[in-house]
Structures are given as C-alpha cells and as structure tokens.
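Hi Y.,

Following your request, here is the sequence exactly as I used it, all 233 residues.
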Amino acid sequence: MKKERKWYWGILFILGAVALIAGAMGYMKEFGFWNIFLSVVLIGWLIEGIYKRSFGGILFPIAIFVIINDEWLGLPEISPWPVMVAAVLATAGLSILFPHVKRKKHIYPEFGCKEEHVREGMEGEELHCEVSFNEAVKYVNSSTLSSLHTECSFGSMKIYFDNEALKNGVATAYAETSFGSTIYYVPSTWRVVMNVETAFGSGEEKGRCNPTGENTLYINGEVSFGSMVVQYV
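Below is the corresponding structure, written out as tokens. Let me know if you'd prefer a different format.
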C-alpha cells in the first residue's frame, strides 16, 4: 500500500496544481481555491477507502464532497447535517450487513464515543487497532506481541506499551495516520527504530531514553496531515 499511496497522492496533488492554475486563468470559475484543494484530498481519501474496502472511507469523502460542491452539483438547498448523518447511518448499516473482510481476529474499532469510554487493554501476538472520527486509548499488555498495526483518521489515538519485555525482544509496529494524531508511549529502556514517511505531517520522538538493547521496537508508517509521536516513559 505504501508505494501505491505515494503514486496516487502524488498524482492527485499534481492534478490539484493543474486545476488551480486553470482556475487562475479563468477556467473552472465555479470552483474556489479551497473547494479544489479539499476535493483533491477527498478524492485521495475515497481511493484509499476503495482500496481498503472501508465503507466509512468511501461514504464520508463522498458526503463531504457533496457538501462543499453543492452549488456545482445543483443542490444549493441541501443541508450538511442530513448528508453527514446519512453517511454515518449508511456506514453503520453496511458494516453490520457486510463485516470488513480485511479485519483479523484482534481488531478494536472505535467510532462515536469519548476517550474515557474506550480505555481497554489488548492482548495477542498480532494486534490491529483502528479509530475514525473519535479518540481512543489502548493499553498493549501482551507478553507475546510481535506486530501491531494502528490506523487513525480524523481522530486521536494513544497506545501504551505496558509490558517491559517483547516476545524474543523484537516487535514491529505499523502506524497509519491521516488528519489526526497517534502517540506511542514506549518504555524508555526500549530501543526504537522509527521509519515514518510524512506528507504534510510530522513524525518525532519525545522524552529521554536509555535503551538496554534487550528490546527493540521497529515503527514504520505513513502520516498525512497529522502527527506520529513516540513518547518515552
């Protein structure tokens, strides 16, 4: 997915630049700068949703596109709230009727509730945590952890690594963040190898660490319009 994402985001931003130049030259007068820019971002989000077969990743960008381009679509009297509520209900209904085929055994999706209601632990060898339009706090207290995959879009995610030891001393995490923030709270005795690609975002380490060399966490990921932070504790 990483290589494909680079391609389509790159192509979309180039098309957005072309559209902006065309608008400056008098073409596409019905569109403004922010309409064009947001439409490009929404198209990218839609493509990613189709790729992942995510109902929310498909319906929400369509809904927002309709809202910001209502006059161009001939729907000047439509209200944003019914469109967004319809997207929420349709996403919930489709998710119930057609469970996400990509989801594995250890998945903790969160939608529509507050941070204090989603504090829970995760155990297992391969974990997957996803949050959209929400805030979530997760505690990884598994002594057999080997891999972790987190996805955060339009929200906030905090992951606490509670155990001092990793399985065989090594684990790999992959973090995807779009229009949100992801924070990994890592023991200061761990060695962290961070390789996060950013597009209009940031990836950084905070705090002091004194690695013993016994545990190594490899963090790979992609950040678009957001942040990825490793906080040593």
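The first strand starts at residue 107 and ends at 110.

Thanks again,
Q.
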